Amino acid sequence: MKRTDKHLLDEMNAKSRMATRKRAHFTFHKSDDDTLQRMLNAMQPGTYLRPHKHENPDKREVFLVLTGKFLVVEFNENGNITDHMILDANSHQYAAEIAERIHHTVICLAPDSIAYEIKDGPYNPIDDKNFASWAPKEGDPVCADFIDKILKELNIQIS
C-alpha cells in the first residue's frame, strides 16, 4: 500500500520551502514507463510552471488539491485564458482535469500547497511537454510578472 499521510505532506512542504524552485515532488509510480504517472507536487507561492500542453503523445492530466490552494489555468494557442479553476479543499473545489492538447499552468496561491497529480504515461522528458512559445522560460526574470498578469486578469490574489 502506498500511503499519503501527514508525515509525508510535512516532509514535502519542508522540501519545497528549501528548494530554489519553491517546489518538490514525490513519485508513486515505479518507473517512467508506467502508463499511469502519479505524484505529489508540493509548492510555495512564487514557483513558476511554464504553460505547456501534452500533445504527440497526447496525455490527460489531473490535479487534486490535498492542502493549500492552487489556480489551474487553460489557454488557447495565442496565450489567451480560456478557463480557470481555483482548487481549494476548504471551498469544496477539489480537482481539475486538463484534456490533451490544451495549454495549461498551475499557480500556487497559498504556502504549503500540495497537489496529487495524475497523468497518462509513459514519461519521456524529450516529448512530455510542449511549452508555450508565448510564455517565459523558467528562470527568466519576467516569470513573476507573467504570473502577476494572469492573477490580475482573473482578479485573484495570493493568500
Structure explained in plain terms:
The longest helix has 13 residues, at 6-18. The chain has a single domain (6-124, 134-154), classed as Jelly Rolls (Sandwich), CATH 2.60.120. The chain is 16% helix and 36% strand. The chain has helices at 6-18, 143-154; strands at 23-27, 36-43, 52-53, 61-67, 69-75, 81-88, 95-98, 103-108, 113-120, 130-131. The protein is built from 2 helices and 10 strands, in the order H-E-E-E-E-E-E-E-E-E-E-H. The protein has 159 residues and is α+β, with helices and mostly antiparallel strands.
Secondary-structure element order, as H and E? HEEEEEEEEEEH
Anisotropy-based shape: globular
Compute the separation of the termini in Å.
34 Å
Provide the spatial order of strands within the biggest beta sheet: 1-2-9-4-7
The CATH class designation is Mainly Beta
Oligomer: single chain
CATH superfamily: Jelly Rolls
Give the count of structural domains. Answer: 1
Structural class, from secondary structure content?
alpha+beta
* Unreliable runs: none
Indicate the percent of residues in helices. 10-25%
Write a compact overview of the structure shown.
The protein is an alpha+beta fold and 159 residues long.
Please specify the SSE layout and strand pairing.
Elements: H1 6-18, E1 23-27, E2 36-43, E3 52-53, E4 61-67, E5 69-75, E6 81-88, E7 95-98, E8 103-108, E9 113-120, E10 130-131, H2 143-154
Antiparallel strand pairs: 1-2, 2-9, 3-10, 4-7, 4-9, 5-6, 5-8
